[in-house]
Automatic annotation (TrEMBL), chain A:
<dbReference type="InterPro" id="IPR013144">
    <property type="entry name" value="CRA_dom"/>
</dbReference>
<dbReference type="GO" id="GO:0005737">
    <property type="term" value="C:cytoplasm"/>
</dbReference>
<dbReference type="InterPro" id="IPR006595">
    <property type="entry name" value="CTLH_C"/>
</dbReference>
<protein>
    <recommendedName>
        <fullName>CTLH domain-containing protein</fullName>
    </recommendedName>
</protein>
<feature type="domain" description="CTLH">
    <location>
        <begin position="77"/>
        <end position="134"/>
    </location>
</feature>
<dbReference type="InterPro" id="IPR050618">
    <property type="entry name" value="Ubq-SigPath_Reg"/>
</dbReference>
<dbReference type="GO" id="GO:0005634">
    <property type="term" value="C:nucleus"/>
</dbReference>
<dbReference type="InterPro" id="IPR024964">
    <property type="entry name" value="CTLH/CRA"/>
</dbReference>
<dbReference type="InterPro" id="IPR006594">
    <property type="entry name" value="LisH"/>
</dbReference>
Automatic annotation (TrEMBL), chain B:
<dbReference type="InterPro" id="IPR013144">
    <property type="entry name" value="CRA_dom"/>
</dbReference>
<dbReference type="InterPro" id="IPR006594">
    <property type="entry name" value="LisH"/>
</dbReference>
<protein>
    <recommendedName>
        <fullName>CTLH domain-containing protein</fullName>
    </recommendedName>
</protein>
<dbReference type="InterPro" id="IPR013083">
    <property type="entry name" value="Znf_RING/FYVE/PHD"/>
</dbReference>
<dbReference type="GO" id="GO:0005634">
    <property type="term" value="C:nucleus"/>
</dbReference>
<keyword id="KW-0963">Cytoplasm</keyword>
<feature type="region of interest" description="Disordered">
    <location>
        <begin position="1"/>
        <end position="36"/>
    </location>
</feature>
<dbReference type="InterPro" id="IPR024964">
    <property type="entry name" value="CTLH/CRA"/>
</dbReference>
<dbReference type="GO" id="GO:0043161">
    <property type="term" value="P:proteasome-mediated ubiquitin-dependent protein catabolic process"/>
</dbReference>
Amino acid sequence: MSLFLLEIRQLAEIEAMAASKKLITREEWEKKLSDVKIRKEDMNKLVMNFLVTEGYVEAAEKFRMESGTEPDIDLATITDRMAVKKAVQSGNVEDAIEKVNDLNPEILDTNPQLFFHLQQQRLIELIRNGKVEEALEFAQEELAPRGEENQSFLEELERTVALLAFEDVSNCPVGELLDISQRLKTASEVNAAILTSQSHEKDPKLPSLLKMLLCAQNQLDEKAAYPRVNDLSTATLEDPAV
Amino acid sequence: MEMDSLPNGNNTAGTPISATATATANPAPPQSSNLPQLTESLKLEHQFLRVPFEHYKKTLRANHRAVEKEMSAVISGVTEAAAADLSPDDAVNHLNSLVCRLQGLKRKGFYSFDFLFAVLSLEEGSRAEHLQAQKCRVRLDHLESADAENMSEWNNTRMKRILVDYMLRMSYYDTAVKLAKSSNLQDLVDIDVFQEAKKVIDALQNKDVAPALAWCADNKSRLKKSKSKMEFQLRLQEFIELVRAENNLRAITYARKYLAPWGATHMKELQRVIATLAFKRDTECSTYKVLFEAKQWDYLVDQFKQEFCKLYGMTLEPLLNIYLQAGLSALKTPYCYEDDCTKEDPLSQEAFRTLAMPLPYSKQHHSKLVCYITKELMDTENPPQVLPNGYVYSTKALEEMAKKNNGRIICPRTGLVCSYTELVKAYIS
């Protein structure tokens, strides 16, 4: 009996909470939104920031001409950065290292982890192409000395060299190193390092703003029922469930 | 008489060992009536029965496999002959060759073959099997023979068995054989079993893994059941030797064939060893340098000894160590380490003190006072008495001394002379 009473009380509390949540109608909400003013220049800067960071150089050039928004870095460097990224993604790591050094020799000098990961990727490519002797020589000459200096490099090196022990990569516990996703991961790391060297953020601002929107909505959900943006791609307001 | 497993033995067999062994040999005589008093002592004889029994089972399995192999070959030969379109002469020749094959089996002692009735019957009668069944029987009889009358002789035999076990485990094979022969203990010790281990150990000490790998193959199913890593570790060592010799491509081929299958369960160790390809034999990187050291072979020897003992249900430590540790921990008290510890106490000797160092103290709920003169216990029947100089002796000893010396007492430790009337009775609380 007491259990039943307890459940009744809990239900009552939930209802009271729901009742205490402020309900904001679509009309009120849209009025509040229309009162917020956003400058066109700010919007254009956000778009330009996105195009530059993601490397859409031609689109950025056209957008500059059409909107008059100036990018905060030289657009020519984007082409170089994207060439590096593309080289890594297609497995031409040597070419990528050369291009990075042409762009800014300090990038690899000041970032030993990035350099190790590029060398590791190069070893992976040699193993992928069945160049066993070359892979061994490369591991001995280039990677082992760096592994000795750093425990985390050593573990990465162990995992990579272990690929040599498996003819059938589908049964290899470290087989994911040969996946395309590993190339993308390395390419993304190089891309971020180049952007940092150009005093530019590693990530575009637009996705960050969208994350903030979702975060703010989640916090507001606790206090009010309001028209929500559930689908970011359409940005449609959806009425609150009453 | 069901055998309890030793603390570091492992009685995995579900059936009481003695019962199974008896069934394979002759029926046992009725148990000795003295056995209940000996039960505690016999609990330590687990491996005494277990080892020959395991050896016996192993031989049976090996013989059974050999028989099955030969039989399936003969049967498939007959089937082929039946299916083939042979002339009568060819058919007779073919059957004769199969008969010869079976008679060869019979000579090996596995089978009898009665061609007239075309009956193939399997005979469990190889010489090795028979000898091992006999050994189980002898050991059971030896345990049965333990009773109060011959206890001292029986214990003496046990002492020699323990010493032989120690010698065999320490690889003093010739000494072990000599002691066993001179004491007529051949059936009560496991020389034949340890000879099998000796071959593998000698090979490993000579940096040769082939006999050890063959041993792993012979015992594959049982090693797999106990989740043994022995074969894997041998393979790793063989890989290391290829890297040491700078046969890198051969090492990779070897790894793909013999190491890759272990990747799912032992990837961490596998990775570490494969990485030696990048670091080479002269590396200064401690992680890999250790893998090229000679002591890796010593680890393999130790590992093999452990696996071998586990397989035969032996204790992992020599019995001598176990008995010594049990005895010393029963005797060890803080008093043993004091300067005036009596010479009769084994722990007054440096060698025993060293052995007892890691052992716990004996759990003594009450002090036991032993008279310095008579070496007898002082209790309410024979209470302690205190001399004026503070030394304590038993009433019995002091009364005898007073009788001999006209009522005078002479302290054996300080030389003090006093009258019997000056003594004060002490009480044990």
